[in-house]
Amino acid sequence: MKARLKTRTVVAAVSAASIALVGFVAVPAHADTRTTVVVTESNPLSSLNPGTPDTNLVTNTDIGYLVSAPFWYYDNKEQVVRNTDLGSYDIAVNKVNDFEVKYTIKKGAVWSDGVPITAGDLLLSHILNSSAYSIKAGLGDPNGNTTPAFNSVNYGGPYDTAVNGLPVVSADGLSVTVKYSIRVANWDILGPSPFPVHTLVELARGDKGLPSVSTAAADTAQFVKDFQSYNTANLKKYGNVWSNSYNISAVDSSTNPLLLVSNGGYILQSAVTNQSATLVVNPKYNDGPALSGITTFIFKFGIADGSPSAQALSNKEIDVYDGQPTADAVASLNTLPGVTTVGYNAATYEHIDLRVGDGPGTTDHYTGPFAASGGQKAADLRRAFLLAYPRADIVSKLIAPINSDAQVLQSTFVLPDNADYNSVIGANGSSIYSGTQAKRTATALALVKKYYPTAGTATPINVNLLFGQPSNTRRVSESQLVKAAEAKVGFNVNITPTSGWSAHLSENKWDAEFFAWSASSIQQQGNCPNFETSGGNNFIGYSSSVVDAACKVLSGAAISHADELRLYDQAEGAVDRDAVSLGIFQFPSVVAYNSALSGVKPGPLAPNIVWNYWTWHF
């Protein structure tokens, strides 16, 4: 599975909704044909809110994509498409040091409970993206050691850097104007997404059922009042709901319907822990592209990659498969009658991170072999671990059989299919980890022997590795290659797979973790959230003044492309020198689907498969 910890470079607006991302009733066309589609997910649903560090994952956001409709989405050409059914947005003031964008909800847009969507529903985004607001409202410093009341992944991004004061609500209650101190880069994807704030008030109050429209209007007004007055007591209650109450994996008739309010094409009807989730058409949906005939989406979890997934497709138990296939699985998929198999380039990449400090929100302290507090010894051990990491072996044995053009990843800010890739890797410090594996292993062993003379014949250094589900065949194979390679230089790597691994990324018990970032946006800041001190995706306690300086510029006003690449190299150079992270490979992405299903057009950015679900039909 990919963590969308989205790339996890998360779009600020995207995670502003509780059940995340975009989505887009009309009377279904093709009503005389099949109207239920079954899609696989490698990992189960773990939360209805993918906007926290522990829950911003592919499965959560893919499902969330179908139940929320913000102002824009990406198509399969990486182009931003505006959702004019929800409303409009444009520049209101355009000056270098005074820049404003106005967002207007289309009159008549409603939530699935019938409550009108208003400007008040756009204000939560500001709380989730503004460190200054969180501090002023007494909700906690997102850059401090304590988890803020709203445990959002989006602090520290371009919005956070440049927003100026509170969004201004219009007199008619349908528009907000966001003010920036500079003409911020990527302004068109940074703004607010709607969230049913009346439900936050009601859940905080302990309500168990859907309110009347008049009650909901009063609750929205209460939220706006609390937001504008920085009412710490009430805001903390709302933060507790947003951060914790949506973290459920089962949905049935006993689930509080307030948790399921949607403005997207679908409503989550039910979910069985570790098995499936079922979504049905939202009858109130009127703020996104019309659906084409699918009335029910079923997501099935835990169908293993490889022959089980191929067999499920062959048996028509599933209609769409998108996983981490083995070479044998791809070969099998290509032979199935009635199944269309498509390879595509996804902006998703595998990487290995080494913990150097305390994970966000943890109360204990990391004291493992790679801790920054260990000084030069820890730095040498980190360098040795990354040098010995069998990246070439992983690519040649597990990835190249699926994609013959696969290569070891030398940058995580720019991927190999980008025209700037060769230029970036020539100056980003990745040459530290070049050369043959034999040479790298010898260098690693010499580093380790400085402190552990028996290394090479013994494995005196224990490393706990976090990497994924037991059912993920490719990841299990990958971990086995890692264990064998690292043993040669003295590391004893624990490779026990971990169900629900993504919820453990911040924990200090893990010395190393490999998984995939899946990009959901294209921003000037690149992958800064993964490495800057305040980054929402920085789980390993890494802090570098060099990285922070580069990312401060990248997260600010628009700069030239040449300067952008120069700063990418500056940031990555520090990461490489500090030996905290390495890219491994870009995902060889394959989707296989029932040939009777129309509309499936995988795209490079997450959500790769369901980005245009409204066009799907049999």
Word description of this protein:
By secondary structure, this protein is of the alpha+beta class. The chain is built from 17 helices and 17 strands. The chain has helices at residues 58-65, 124-129, 131-136, 158-162, 197-205, 213-229, 232-245, 307-314, 327-334, 375-388, 391-399, 421-425, 437-449, 473-487, 528-531, 545-554, 561-578; strands spanning 3-7, 36-41, 72-74, 80-82, 87-95, 98-105, 168-169, 175-180, 266-272, 276-281, 296-301, 320-322, 339-354, 461-466, 491-494, 512-518, 581-594. Strands 1, 12, 13, 14, 15, 16 and 17 form a 7-stranded mixed β-sheet that branches. It has a 4-stranded mixed β-sheet with strand order 2-11-10-9, with helices on one face. Strands 5-6-8-7 form a 4-stranded antiparallel β-sheet, with no helix packed on it. Strand 9 (266-272) and strand 10 form a beta hairpin. It starts with a strand and ends in a 24-residue tail after the last strand.
